[in-house]
Amino acid sequence: MAQVKICGLRSAQHVAAAVGAGARYVGFVFFPKSPRAVSPAEAAALGAEVPVGVARVGLFVDPVDALLEATLAEAPLDVIQLHGQESPDRVAEVKARFGLPVMKAVGIASAGDLPALTDYGLVADMLLVDAKAPKDAVLPGGNGLAFDWRLLVGRKWLRPWLLAGGLTPDNVAEAIRLTGAPGVDVSSGVESAPGVKDADLIRAFVAGAS
Ligand SMILES: O=C(O)c1ccccc1N[C@@H]1O[C@H](COP(=O)(O)O)[C@@H](O)[C@H]1O
Asked: Keywords assigned by UniProt (predicted)?
């Protein structure tokens, strides 16, 4: 079974659905422009529902240190996800300064984007291989857009990785079969409306990844 991350959780009910279904990671979004954004206090309350063995991932977009410090002071996290334009040096700096594993998202649209996965694999603990967001997109991820998964066939990187971008309960099994992804991450594909998770879709997604 591929490991599953359910991202953008905002309610205890949906955290319970993700954990109960067997998700290995739950994601809390600390990016104000997202319809899935939570405050540190909300994430702390949700994180308290998460059992040992399930990692609480905080998603940030080009965060300054002060935001990371303030968030971590209130909301215990197990992994920092960087989903902006952070350079490899910045990834290394965040990892060293905050003492947590870092998952770096890399946007893929064509084969020319793949070398970045090698570069980030030298510094990040995990890679998140996501679709590259359109230039005019408000969000750098969480847009329900997929990329051509065939670009990943036969590729290997230095770090564990999750596949993301446009995954749904209906396509996740095929995505894993084609790419060999050891893990998958989903946000909008388990929602009934932007920012509104659906417990049945969460369960169907985890079952599809099994
Ligand atoms: O989910 C968000 O709102 C979000 C905001 C800013 C950056 C990343 C975001 N989500 C991440 O993007 C992937 C793919 O999303 P989707 O499944 O295509 O909707 C998601 O797994 C999150 O890690």
From this structure: Amino-acid biosynthesis, Aromatic amino acid biosynthesis, Isomerase, Tryptophan biosynthesis
Pocket of ligand 1 (CB under 6 A): 7-8, 27, 29, 31, 34, 36, 59, 61, 83, 130, 139-145, 164-167, 185-189
In tens digits, the chain (210 residues) has pLDDT values of: 899 999 999 999 999 999 999 999 999 999 999 999 999 999 999 999 899 999 999 999 999 999 999 999 999 999 999 999 999 999 999 999 999 999 999 999 999 999 999 999 999 999 999 999 998 999 999 999 999 999 999 998 889 999 999 999 999 999 999 999 999 999 999 999 999 999 999 999 999 999
Assigned architecture for domain 3-209: Alpha-Beta Barrel (3.20)
With a threshold of 0.85, tell me whether the complex ipTM lies above it. yes
Q: Which of 3, 38, 59, 191 to mutate to test the pocket of ligand 1 (most atoms within 8 A of CB)?
A: 59
pTM of structure? 0.97
Q: Report domain extents, the chain.
A: 3-209
If you ran DSSP here, which 8-state letter would residue 53 be given?
T
